[in-house]
Amino acid sequence: MGRWFTGCLSVLAILVVAKAYTGWHQARTDAPDLIVEAASLIAQGRGAHDLGPGRVEQVLATQDPNFFRHNGVDLKTRGPATDGTVTQTLARPVSIASMVPGVGKVSRLTYTLALDERLPKTAQLALFLDRVDMGHAPDGTWIIGFFKASEVAFDRSPAELTDDEFRSLVAAMGGGRAISPAAAPTPSRVAYLGVLRD
């Protein structure tokens, strides 16, 4: 029994180390392409700075308040559109690809830490804004991306929106609410919307 238990622990330890290395290595491999992709988004006017004055702070207040102070992981962060931090959301495909219950999370953790080390925060935000789920368009199609949602819902860029229109987009992040400044917030959104009110 003792040998069997020791053997199982050894196999588990090897698996955890392998998963940790896989996530770390994958992030280092992905980082150069992600930096190029983020630079392209920023050059197209689709970076965090292009949301308008003070508006990236509104997004982060609901999604990842400690974004500029953590190293990719923050146990207190659980925004409506994020599965943890903004950086952890970018690492979501890694966790899906390594679906070993429990142990698969190790890959995502090391991927997140390595990605935060390699990608400037401005790049992370640009990628997040481009990939965040925003819910259904009036025609029923699923909208991905904050700037895309602004164009579909209001036919304007986020920087051109009124404060109420912008808040409705922030509230819709994660796909849990219709994009409309007149729509009543669902109970799960009230706390987040309260952060944004003047």
Automatic annotation (TrEMBL):
Residues 56-185 form the Glycosyl transferase family domain. It holds the Pfam family Transgly. Gene3D superfamilies: Biosynthetic peptidoglycan transglycosylase-like. This is Transglycosylase. It comes from Thalassobacter stenotrophicus DSM 16310.
